[in-house]
Amino acid sequence: MALELRSKTYEGFLGIDMDVQPGKYPIRLRAKGEGDKFYEGTSFLEVKKVNFKTQTLKLPPGMVELDSKTLERVNQEAKRLEDLFAEVRAERIWKGAFLRPVPGEISTGFGLRRVINRQTRNPHSGVDMRAEEGTPVWASNNGVATLVDELFFSGKSVIIDHGWGIYSMYFHLSEILVREGDPIEKGAILGRVGSTGRSTGSHLHWGIKIHGARVDPLALLKLTERLQD
Q1: How far is CA 135 from CA 14, 109, 156, 192, 218, in A?
Q2: For residues 114 and 48, what is the distance between their CA atoms, to the nearest angstrom?
Q3: d(Cα 177, Cα 168) in Å, to the nearest integer?
Q4: Which of 83, 127, 197, 212 has the smallest C-beta neighbourhood within 10 Å, fewest atoms?
């Protein structure tokens, strides 16, 4: 969205989560000018309805139902991620356009709703990109590797903090080539495509969060393609 101050226009990102209901929402803008002068204003943002696709699957119960020990692990990992995404780095690290991490086609799109064994599961919060095992995975922008670990669902995973509340996620890797806390440059190789975690084949799951909102990574590519480094 954009804010006009005198003869200049300033732009910024506002993440809209996939579960936000359609409607008009008031957005209050506050900007600091020279010295201690502040500019304030209210605008309205219209959220339109999107009809995400639904996929119905029938799988063996052992592939879906978790035992108590695994469920405890999954809940602990979910809390860890929740706490991570709640942190907003005041520094902007990303610069210019975001990059596609692998060149493969999209096999599973953003927002896909899955019904497994008649139970509704969480919607697909990123995009799955086709790629052969061992394909290099590039960092979509500058940042800091804020999580490097192997998780139950996402397997070998890397999460990058780009600053200003923007995070990118790279899941199901076969190999990780960075360490937690490493500064990351746009285009650097983070690891290699694999099928670790809860995965049925070699691919990269790529996700983006902006201030906790799950957003379509392809939309971020389009929004930033005209930006210069």
Answers
A1: 32, 20, 14, 5, 20
A2: 22
A3: 16
A4: 83
Q: Where are the alpha helices (DSSP H) in the chain?
A: 61-64, 68-86, 217-224
DSSP-derived secondary structure letter, 33: -
pLDDT digits (tens), the chain, 229 positions: 544 555 566 677 888 998 899 999 998 887 777 777 887 888 888 999 888 888 887 777 766 788 999 999 999 999 999 999 999 999 999 999 999 999 988 988 898 888 888 888 888 889 999 999 999 999 999 999 999 999 999 999 999 999 999 999 999 999 999 999 999 999 999 999 999 998 888 999 999 999 999 999 999 999 999 888 7
CATH superfamily name and code, 80-107+126-224: Glucose Permease (Domain IIA) (2.70.70.10)
